[in-house]
Structure formats: C-alpha cells, structure tokens
Write a structure and sequence with these properties.
By secondary structure, the protein is of the alpha/beta class. The protein folds into two domains: 172 residues, HUPs (Rossmann fold, 3-Layer(aba) Sandwich), CATH 3.40.50; 92 residues, Pantoate-beta-alanine ligase, C-terminal domain (Pantoate--beta-alanine Ligase, Chain: A,domain 2, 2-Layer Sandwich), CATH 3.30.1300. It has eleven helices and nine strands. The strands form two sheets. Strands 1-4-3-2-5-6 form a six-stranded parallel beta sheet, sandwiched between helices. Helix 7 packs across helix 8 and helix 10 runs antiparallel to helix 11. The longest helix has 16 residues. The radius of gyration is 19 Å and the shape is globular. The N and C termini lie far apart (40 Å). The structure holds adenosine monophosphate. Adenosine monophosphate binds next to helix 2 and strand 5.
Length: 282
C-alpha cells in the first residue's frame, strides 16, 4: 500500500492512474479502522482498479472539542488492517495539509441538516461537507463509498454532489453489525464493559419500531422507545426519529408505505455518543 501525507504528491500519483483511464474508488474515513470500514474497502476494490482510503479526523465536524480530543487514533493498526485488506493507497494528511487556513465554507444543505444529527450537532454537516469537498477535489473523478450507518451524511453528500455537479458517483454500503446487533463504530472501543453489554438496546429499539410500524402511530412508537431507553440509567437518548429516506422529513401520521421510511436513533451511553438507523421496508 502506498501512503501519502501530501495532497500534491497524491495528486501527481493519481494523474498517472487517470491518464491510464483506470477507475478510482475512494473511501473517506476518520480511522480506527473496523470491519464496517473494511466492507467499504472490499466493495471499492471489487468495483474499481485502484482503491484509495483516507484517514483524517476532521476537527471542523466536531461540535465538541472534548469529543474531538478523545476520538480514537490508531494509525499503525489501521495501516496493517488496510494492507491486509489489499487497499492500494492510503491518504493520511495532517490538519495543516487539509486546512492551511481555518476553513470558511458555508454550504446550503437544503434543510437536510435541520433534523436529527444536524439539530443535535450544530455545524456538524457543514464540517463534513467541507472536508469531503476538499477530499473529492484532491481525488478527482471517482466512485466514492459511504456507509448507511451514517445515513443522514449519505443523503447530504448525495445532495452536495448533485448541487455542485461533482464528478463523483456515490455508492452506499449496508451497516456491518456485531453478532449482538450493535452497529460497528470506531467509538465502540470507548465503551466500558458494562456499557458495551447494554449497547445492543439501540438496535433492538430500531427493530421494535420496524416490527410495529404498521400497527402503531410513529409518536406512540417513539414514546415507547424513549420510555424503554430512559429506564436504563446508562443511556441518555438524544432522539428516536422516523423519517423519509430521501428528504429526511419526520413522519407524523400513520405510515402507509414503510418502504419510504427509516428509523434513526442517537444516544449517549455514558460519555460515548452512538448512532444507528435501519430501513422500515421488509
Ligand atoms: P467514519 O470513520 O466513522 O467517518 O466512517 C467512514 C465511513 O465508514 C463512513 O462512510 C461510514 O458511514 C462508514 N461506516 C462506519 N461504520 C460502518 C458500519 N458499521 N458499517 C458500514 N459502514 C460503516
């Protein structure tokens, strides 16, 4: 695996790949590589000639400096995992390389950032789009792979690619889960043993909503989940939401066509904030 820290050097290397008309697949990550990331890498390798992964813990998408500081950083292990997954290129830039000056971009996200993660983490998606746009500019024309685990991010990136006519095809990849249903996440290693044991309640809550979506109104289902989660002192629920899969607007009335909706959850487990979502279609 070739490792680049400099965007200029990466660009020169990719110029040659582009000249040869080879297909470039790109997986942006914040590192602490796990099986969820590796499923994106695997898909990228199978659908492209060259697989590029980036690792960059993007400061401007953290609305909480403490969260940024304690975000796990495991570059040596990450390199070993990416190498054994046969990734071709790792781009691991410094903060100065991506942001020589503090970024000032402001994106219009058409209200997709007004709900759920956007509502609870002000500025988060503007920060995500800021870094993704800069990374896309470096990588150039490519297939880019994103996980459904961060579904709202996926919708917002699709939106910005269309809005700015970026030469990037976005592909989504299903969420990888642990055997007990917990969505794989870099943050999972921050959980205590007790919190880790309790964590599958998030996925169970999503399954509860999915199972009952035809019998109970969204408000009642959300209330049930709130009561259940709040009865466990390890958790602090941020939100449980049922929202349209494309425009992310929350469903208020009884849902006629569950295929068009997903259920989303975000909660603190101790100090660790976890998110998850699933489709309501059968
Ligand atoms: P992150 O490093 O958390 O920014 O994630 C990098 C990419 O991996 C994003 O597109 C995520 O949606 C995706 N991802 C993270 N966790 C999972 C998972 N459990 N299954 C599939 N994709 C994931």
């Amino acid at each position: 695996m070739k490792i680049f820290e400099s965007k200029k050097e990466l660009n020169i290397y990719l110029d040659d790949i582009r000249y040869k008309n080879m297909k470039i697949g790109f997986v942006p990550t914040m590192g602490c590589i796990h099986k969820g990331h590796l499923s994106l890498i695997k898909k990228t390798i199978s659908e492209n000639d060259i697989a590029v992964c980036s690792i960059f813990v993007n400061p401007v998408q953290f609305n909480n400096t403490d969260d940024f500081k304690k975000y796990p950083r495991t570059l040596d292990e990450d390199i070993a995992k990416l190498e054994s997954a046969n990734c071709d290129i790792l781009f691991a830039p410094s903060e100065k390389e991506i942001y020589p000056e503090p970024p000032v971009e402001q994106y219009n996200l058409a209200g997709l950032d007004n709900v759920m993660e956007g509502k609870y983490r002000p500025g988060h998606f503007n920060g995500v789009v800021t870094v993704i746009k800069r990374l896309f500019d470096i990588i150039g024309q490519c297939n880019a792979y994103f996980g459904e685990k961060d579904y709202q991010q996926l919708v917002i990136i699709n939106h910005i690619v269309k809005q700015l006519s970026l030469p990037v095809n976005i592909h989504s990849v299903e969420t990888c889960r642990e055997d007990d249903g917990l969505a794989m996440s870099s943050r999972n290693i921050l959980l205590t043993i007790e919190e880790r044991k309790a964590a599958p309640l998030l996925y169970q809550s999503l399954l509860y909503v999915k199972k009952n979506i035809r019998n109970k109104p969204p408000e009642k289902l959300k209330e049930d989940v709130k009561t259940k989660i709040n009865s466990n002192p390890l958790f602090k629920l941020d939100y449980i939401e049922i929202a349209h899969k494309d425009n992310l607007l929350p469903a208020n009335d009884k849902i006629i066509n569950p295929d068009l909706y997903r259920v989303f959850i975000a909660a603190y487990l101790g100090n660790v904030r976890l998110i998850d979502n699933i489709s309501l279609s059968d």
